């Protein structure tokens, strides 16, 4: 995009000026007792059954234990459940740990597991994660330390989804209510909630009674720092130890700086442009195809993202179970896009709303707006805070924006966690109403045959390329800045487990 080089040069100069004023901490300094992490926004929720956007997930994932977890290598592993057995194709029995206590001192029991399952699958509770767990039809205590989950049909993605199922204390939640629980959550994880200074930071303290591995940090502060340059300055000044969501220019400028490092990984997250196929104009597949034709993915990746990310034509990647190979998306062809839009006349001649939030890279949003403007569309960016943005994009199609930018990750590494919520007619995230999608997605989540699943998801992806309910843009690399002495490497599912970190000796 025009002006990118000048922007990089200006940003580089600013970063060098900051670096010149900052003296690195002495190598002999004792490791700090409090780990300071700069995230973009404050969490929209600390109730783990309500949101899993990154700023919320980074924090509450350390307060709660999940039924299952993943290793840093991506393998599903025990956590609150120590083992599991398929009783039948639709029943799994989980053995529950008997040595876990919540932060209020009460024991974690199988009843808490059942309550957590029933809470997140209750339509009236309204969890945005409901689509991930809606196949569960029953949860019951079936032994002293056993819980059995029943699914309506065989559900191959269940274990991958249970990696995200946080266990909450039944008695406490019922006593204080959902709103109070969100403001002062009680979990059983390696860190306990201490304080939430709204708009500033969330402070956690180490759970020294934790049943598993503990971390070397007595406390952790997750600070809301929306400006990326400020996050970098904080890191270089030693005021923080880990910062998230760097843009490529700032990441490149950190390379070689004293006492800090860039940590990056290509994630399961995909940047995409969502199109509301129920709104006037966009209900015509030809206009949606024209939108896709107008977008130069290579320019976005190479010109704005520094080449860290990878252009993509599908919402699922090779790290997702169910991935069976890619499909060819709509080719970049702005001239053809312009001709289609001119031919549509009044159907394309209106202002289209484009929702975004500060958590996203606004250079990409502005580039998309410009590309669509260049082919004859009138697109108006609507910026709101993340909580409002999430509410808007999950609204009924008639009330939702025409377009929205997103970066989707199910944190489960399974195709069902991506394609089902984005495409199924009953999902609050979906703006698509298509019986073929519904049938294929249902069949794919109801078979344990991996070869059949891959074929079904391949058909889904082919139909996405045909109907264009959204435009996959790039597989996102996530870039962190870290204190050079912090022992930690990011993973594709973007988890940030404090008890898997350490200080180097």
TrEMBL record:
Question: Which GO terms of the molecular function aspect are on file?
Answer: peptide transmembrane transporter activity
Tell me the Gene Ontology biological-process terms attached to this UniProt entry: peptide transport
Where it sits in the cell: the answer is: Periplasm
Domain Solute-binding protein family, chain residue ranges per copy: 75-427
Which key words are in the record?
A: Signal, Transport
Question: What Gene Ontology terms describe where this protein resides (cellular component)?
Answer: ATP-binding cassette (ABC) transporter complex; outer membrane-bounded periplasmic space
Q: Name one Pfam family in it.
A: SBP_bac_5
Signal peptide stretch: 1-29
Q: Which family does it belong to?
A: Belongs to the bacterial solute-binding protein 5 family.
Please report the name of this protein according to its UniProt entry.
Peptide ABC transporter
**Source organism per UniProt:** Roseivivax isoporae LMG 25204
């Amino acid at each position: 995009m025009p002006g990118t080089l000048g922007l990089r040069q200006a940003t580089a100069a600013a970063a060098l000026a900051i670096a010149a004023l900052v003296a690195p901490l002495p190598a002999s300094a004792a490791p700090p007792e409090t780990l300071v992490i700069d995230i973009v926004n404050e969490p929209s929720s600390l109730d783990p059954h309500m949101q899993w956007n990154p700023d919320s997930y980074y924090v509450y994932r350390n307060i709660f234990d999940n039924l299952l977890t993943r290793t840093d290598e991506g393998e599903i592993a025990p956590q609150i459940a120590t083992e599991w057995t398929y009783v039948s194709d639709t029943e799994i029995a989980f053995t529950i740990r008997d040595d876990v206590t919540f932060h209020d001192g009460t024991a974690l029991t199988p009843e808490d597991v059942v309550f957590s399952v029933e809470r997140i699958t209750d339509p009236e509770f309204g969890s945005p994660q409901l689509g991930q767990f809606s196949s569960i039809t029953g949860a019951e205590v079936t032994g002293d330390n056993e819980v059995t989950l029943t699914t309506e049909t065989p559900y191959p993605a269940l274990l991958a989804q249970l990696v995200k199922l946080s266990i909450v204390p039944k008695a406490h939640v019922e006593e204080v209510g959902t709103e109070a629980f969100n403001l002062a959550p009680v979990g059983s994880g390696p860190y306990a909630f201490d304080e939430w200074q709204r708009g500033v930071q969330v402070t956690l303290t180490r759970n020294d009674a934790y049943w598993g591995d503990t971390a070397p940090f007595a406390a952790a502060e997750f600070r809301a720092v929306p400006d990326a340059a400020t996050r970098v300055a904080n890191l270089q000044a030693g005021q923080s130890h880990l910062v998230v969501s760097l843009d490529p220019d700032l990441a490149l400028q950190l390379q070689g700086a004293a006492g800090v490092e860039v940590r990056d990984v290509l994630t399961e997250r995909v940047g995409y442009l969502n199109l509301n196929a129920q709104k006037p104009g966009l209900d015509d597949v030809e206009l949606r195809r024209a939108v896709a034709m107008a977008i130069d993915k290579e320019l976005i990746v190479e010109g704005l993202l520094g080449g860290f990310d990878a252009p993509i034509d599908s919402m699922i990647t090779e790290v997702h179970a169910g991935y069976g190979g890619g499909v060819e998306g709509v080719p970049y062809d702005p001239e053809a896009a312009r001709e289609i839009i001119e031919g549509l006349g009044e159907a394309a001649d209106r202002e289209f709303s484009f929702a975004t939030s500060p958590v996203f890279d606004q250079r990409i949003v502005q580039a998309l707006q410009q590309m669509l403007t260049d082919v004859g569309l009138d697109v108006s960016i609507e910026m709101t805070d993340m909580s409002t943005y999430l509410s808007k994009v999950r609204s009924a199609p008639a009330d939702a924006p025409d377009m929205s930018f997103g970066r989707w990750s199910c944190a489960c590494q399974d195709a069902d966690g991506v394609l089902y919520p984005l495409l199924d007619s009953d999902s609050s995230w979906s703006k698509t109403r298509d019986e073929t999608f519904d049938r294929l997605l249902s069949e794919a989540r109801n078979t344990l045959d991996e070869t059949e699943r891959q074929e079904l998801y391949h058909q889904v992806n082919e139909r996405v390329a045909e109907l264009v309910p959204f435009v996959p843009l790039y597989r996102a690399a996530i870039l962190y800045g870290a204190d050079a002495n912090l022992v930690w490497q990011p993973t594709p599912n973007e988890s940030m487990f404090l008890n898997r970190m350490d200080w180097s000796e």
